[in-house]
Amino acid sequence: MNTIAIARQKAAENGPETPLEIEQEDELMSQSNVKVQRQMIVLTFNDIDCRRLQLAGDFNNWIPDRDIETRNINGCWQKVFTAEPGIYEYRIIVDGRWQQDPTNSAEVPNELGGINSLLQVPAHH
């Protein structure tokens, strides 16, 4: 099971967190002496036929493929990066065209009238 599948499963089990709950958790973590550990994320895209696939989101300041490793193995794209625990909005860019992730049903409307996909990175204690 890849990281996004684990995140989706945890989100389904725990229910959606509100922005206030996320903010409170972030505040508690920043007040404690516990260092937040970045998690390795691997997003896999099996059925996207394209010449170039990029990823942009909250985790890289919406700069396509910044700090992201791209792998293309036999037509299967993988995006590998690290992120601190939290919930992130993102989009994929397929041959220059921005779109939501068709492999992820977790989504939220964005301020431009489109849809952003959601990624939950769980905290490991």
Q: Tally of extended strands?
A: 8
What percentage of residues falls in helices of 4 or more residues? 10-25%
* Oligomeric description of these chains: single chain
Strand content: 35-45%
- SSE pattern: HHEEEEEEEE
Mean pLDDT: 83
Distance linking N and C termini: 20 Å
Q: What is the CATH architecture annotation?
A: Sandwich
Query: What fold name stands as the CATH topology?
Result: Immunoglobulin-like
Number of helices: 2
By secondary-structure content and strand pairing, the structural class works out as alpha+beta
Q: Uncertain segments of ≥5 residues (pLDDT<50)? A: 5-11
Full CATH superfamily name: Immunoglobulins
Radius of gyration, in Å, reads 15 Å
Give keywords:
three-stranded antiparallel β-sheet; 125 residues; 8 strands; Immunoglobulin-like; five-stranded antiparallel β-sheet
Protein architecture, described:
- By secondary structure, the chain is α+β, with helices and mostly antiparallel strands.
- The protein has a single domain (3-121), classed as Immunoglobulins (Immunoglobulin-like, Sandwich), CATH 2.60.40.10.
- Helix content is 20%, strand content 38%.
- The protein has helices at residues 3-14, 19-31, and strands at 39-45, 53-57, 69-73, 76-83, 86-94, 97-99, 107-109, 115-121.
- Mean pLDDT is 83; it is low at 5-11.
Outline of this structure?
The chain is α+β, with helices and mostly antiparallel strands. The chain has helices spanning 3-14, 19-31, and strands spanning 39-45, 53-57, 69-73, 76-83, 86-94, 97-99, 107-109, 115-121.
